[in-house]
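Notebook entry, cofactor series.
This is the third protein in the set we're modelling with a bound small molecule. For this one the ligand is pyridoxal-5'-phosphate. I'm keeping the input format identical across the series so the outputs can be compared line by line later. Sequence and SMILES below, as received.
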Amino acid sequence: MPLHTGRHFLQIPGPTNVPDRVLRAIDQPTIDHRGPEFAQLGKEVLQGMREVFKTSHPVIIYPASGTGAWEAALVNTLSPGDRVLMAETGHFAALWRRLAERLSLAVDFLPGDWRHGADAAAIEERLTADREHAIKAVAVVHNETSTGCVTQVGHVRQALDRAKHPALLMVDTISSLASIEYRMDEWGVDVTVGGSQKGLMLPPGLSFNAVGPRALAASKTARLPRSYWSWDEMLANNTAGFFPYTPATNLLLGLREALAMLREEGLSNVFARHNRHAEATRRALHAWGLEVLCIDPAEYSSSLTAVLMPQGHDADRVRQIILDRFDMSLGTGLGKLQGRIFRIGHLGYFNDLMLAGTLCGVEMGLKLAGVAVASGGVQAALEFLADHSEQARAAA
Ligand SMILES: Cc1ncc(COP(=O)(O)O)c(C=O)c1O
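Returned structure with ligand:
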């Protein structure tokens, strides 16, 4: 391992950089999770998370990674053999599908090219054809972290409505929550899945289900086996701020601080900041003469940008050079995109100069790797950032 000084640049699309304020909040003596201090903390974070999901309905917090919350969404609402409609947006959609199949659900997997979000028209077509209402749930990934493509959840909702189909709508917001606009109630989402380690600026270890009334009603008759993930025991305990088993106390202290930071900045400003950094990143890519993996500008991710490598170049070699020379971690290509792309994470606790440093590392790394890129990518991003600071503030 090369010896490095200064701060490591962690620019993967999650886990993200944890602010010092959050680290200090976590760094506290353990408290009694059945005592009054915890009850207050529990109530505060459970309420605060509703604001982030933009829901008036309950949020459940698991001491688990995001995969746990995926499983929880399915086992609480569905029965063995139920049909679920999913869309192949990328690696994470494929993993959620595999999980559903292991749980004995029957998945209709709409094929995709890993360069787009879920196709709302194709979803509408499938639902319209399903006259018997055999499909019990539609499950999509809002921000596909493996590709940097966003599914327009409002359009998926409209697809369900137009098809007059009663399926539950489930959305994975693991890499969009608190980074990209998300409106659970307005979009009529029944279960939202979230995780702590991305836009929420926390270490990994917490995950979430935000539960709408139709999903809660479905949970009363759903027959998939569940114990640890069971919503009913959680909700019963949560009313007093407690959990049915030992919660991740110190991560919840961090969550309270992260929620305070998001409130201070204002969610709409948080989204504008992410949009701006994503646009600056794309400007750099275009100036270098490289391609953004996501094809449709309406689906560009503001959490990350996936960079398509020119033929004959291995993205992981570029990442390795950047790690060795500049101590910066970038996201690898996942699944069938291994070696073809690298991913620049620009979400969470992040600012203009962090982006500038990130893009400098990428530009130098590409050149060191012998990739024929034009100069001026960093410059294009800096010019955009300089020109658009006022507009961003005004828009906020
Ligand atoms: C969109 C998305 N869904 C699900 C997951 C799985 O979450 P975890 O790795 O925390 O279990 C991830 C992880 O990066 C993700 O990005």
